[in-house]
Amino acid sequence: MKKLNTLIYIALAIHLVLLLLIGIEGSDDEDVMKFLAIFISIPVSINFIGFCLLQFTSISKLGAKIFMYSSYIFVPIGLIGVTGAKKILDDINKKSITNENL
């Protein structure tokens, strides 16, 4: 397993807790809650795919971009994930520039 930026872990945890809270929260209008659960579960699923690509594969750049773009849905909370993914992309770009100069 790779060591990722801590903000990625925090953002994923917040997104999952948000989805869990929407699923647990009861409401008089069940249709609205179903819509919210579906609306939130799609970007959380995409977020998780990006996290898995970051953590378990060699295509970290794609995983960071997927995580970053799917975090935009959760503004302002999603900015934590965007910041973490941006830091990972900056690190990848620095490494590629360093390797090109060698």
TrEMBL record:
Instruction: Cite the entry's keywords alphabetically.
Output: Membrane, Transmembrane, Transmembrane helix
Please verify whether the record's keywords include Membrane. yes
Designated name of the protein: Uncharacterized protein
Sequence intervals crossing the membrane? 7-24, 36-54, 66-85
Tell me the domain of life.
Bacteria
Q: What is the lineage of its organism?
A: Bacteria, Pseudomonadati, Bacteroidota, Flavobacteriia, Flavobacteriales
